[in-house]
Amino acid sequence: MIRRLDLGVVSPLASQAIYHGLADAMQATTPDTIVFCSPAAPYFCVGYHQNAAEVLDLDLCRRHDWPVFRRKIGGGAVYLDQAQLFYHVIVHRSRAPFAVDRIYARYLAAPVLALRRLGLEARLAPPNEIEVGGRRIAGTGGGQIGEAVVVVGNVLFDFPDARMARAWRAPSTPFRRLAREGLRRYLTTLRRELPVCPAPAAVRAALAAAYADTLGAPLVGGALTARERAAVRAAERELARASFVLAGGGRRDAGLKIARGVYVFEGRAPGTDLRVSLRVRHGMVDALAVRGRPAPDAQALIGQPLAALAPPAAEKNPADAVGELLAAGARVTG
Fold first, then answer.
1. Widest distance between CA atoms in the chain
2. Would you state the pLDDT for residue 252?
3. Residue 251 covered by a domain
4. Which residue in 230, 233, 224, 200 sits closest to 14, CA to CA?
């Protein structure tokens, strides 16, 4: 038996604190649990290894009353709102697969099956990207919190790519443009893919049925225990603390992830004013913008393998490497 918690529309903070609290309260005797909910208002959430101030324009978020939280599992900054249905899977670590890829394969099989039953050619691109036609349609993440293994995800009914692109802490206007174009090209939604967008209740029912089928156990409605409610309240206090939201921080040159294999980088050629905004898709140059003098024509690089153009890119920011290549070429031909 798997406990099912239909929590409906909850506050933005609660939509993150619920699975954190359930994981913190998890014991070996706690039933495996699947939660369905949606946030009551828009907000942003960054991954455990991110510092919110480094990846988001916090002043913009404050002006628009968009809360910003940080979660205890990995991944990048995400925009979340009422046009998304969340599913949270919380299981005791003793009952979950050991390998990360097997964890995702097991607990993301249901969203893939549910989307197929809704008429979409969905697939799981390992380890944890759910795609339709090569475009991401559901955000996912996972990790271990306390004694629990957690896998969380959302189904996108619609998505405001302009809002997401505005909120990123972008180093330049061309970088932001490449990022927004990447969202439009490599992210999709139910509204975009289906002639008639299904109601949230229909998607929730499809997800629940798919989880029962893929996990081989019925989903039985339940409620939070007193212990779990206390743990959720504690998680709310922790996740809302500015000191927690502004902790973390990873590589500054790691790039902005748009979807599986799609990143945007910003760089420059040392000793020149040549600046490069670069979008890479699966190791290929997908798009770029070059500024500065001299400004070589770089459009011929689109579609070229990055490794062949700039072998040092594996060791540094790829946009820096492309900038060096272009600057060297410009000096040779000039």
1. 73
2. 56
3. no
4. 233
Location of structure tokens 């490497």: 321
CA–CA gap between residue 160 and residue 84 (Å, rounded): 11
Q: Is residue 226 located within the same domain as residue 133?
A: yes
Q: Over range 172-178, report the average pLDDT.
A: 96
DSSP three-state, residue 204: helix
Is the bond leading into 127 cis (omega within 30 degrees of zero)? yes
| C-alpha span between 89 and 97 (Å, rounded) | 13
User: Between β-strands 275-281 and 284-291, what pairing exists: parallel, antiparallel or unpaired?
Assistant: antiparallel
- pLDDT at site 334: 36
* Alpha carbon of residue 166 to chain centroid: 16
Can you give the length of the chain in residues?
334
Q: Whole-prediction pTM value?
A: 0.92
Same domain for 157 and 282?
A: no
- Residues 223, 327, single domain; the answer is no
Q: Calculate what percentage of the chain has a pLDDT beyond 70.
A: 94
Q: What is the CATH number of the domain that holds 306?
A: 3.30.390
Q: pLDDT per residue over 112-166, tens digit each?
A: 999 999 999 999 999 999 999 999 998 899 999 999 999 999 999 999 999 999 9
pLDDT digits (tens, 9 = 90+) for 225-257: 999 999 999 999 999 999 999 997 765 556 899
Number of structural domains in the chain: 2
Q: Which two tokens stand for residue 116?
A: 């197929």
* DSSP result, 210-270: HHHHHHTS-EEE----HHHHHHHHHHHHHHH-HHHHT-----TTS-EEEETTEEEEEEE-T
